Structure formats: C-alpha cells, structure tokens
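Here comes a specimen:
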Amino acid sequence: MKEKVLIVDDNSNNRFCLRDFLRYEDFHVLSADNGLKGLQLSKDFLPDLVVCDIKMPKLDGYGFLQQLRADVATADIPFIFLTGLDSLASRSQARELGANDYLVKPVRLNKILQTINACLERTAIAAIV
C-alpha cells in the first residue's frame, strides 16, 4: 500500500519538485499552498505523514501543526517541518508543538526521503507496541 504524504508549502517550485520526487518514489502525494488548505486535506484524507513549511499565508506551519494536534482524528499524524528558518527558537517551538522532525532548506531530496522513511518506520513500530 502506498503511503499518503501531504506537502504544505506556499512556494510552488518547492511543492511541485518534492511532489514529483515522492511520486517517483511511489508515494501517494497530496499538496496544499497554505496551512488552511493543508488542514482541510488532513481532515479529509488522513495522510500518513505531513511535510510542511513554516512561513506561509493564511495559516503558518506552527498554527497548522497546533490545529492538527488539537483534533483527535489528526493528532497522531507524523509531521516534518521543511523550512528556511534555522534558529534555536524556531526548532524549539516546533518541538513544543509536537513536530516529529525538522529539516532546514536547502536540503537534498535523498535526505528528505530518508527522514520521511525513518518517521514512517518509527510510527509503524509505535503502532505495534
């Protein structure tokens, strides 16, 4: 079964590049250009994992993650921030909100894939235990 990955990023180039790469790697990919759309897609399709930028219009990544964690239906979806913000404060806030991982742009596609696979593997193991 293909894992469903939701990509949320307001930069269309980043979103399309990651979408195409993950499709090539045999993931089912959904995408949104802001946190509000991402939140709706999360509720409608319950992705296996979310990859999300932080700085976005309408609802930023922090607000998106906070609302995702507040909903029983989506609270346990693994969440990876993929952002240009590289400060201790942004990393700390992500951790406090419940992000599973944090990657700083620019990052190689293989590193993103490795992080996604590791996160999905940890989630699968936790579900068994």
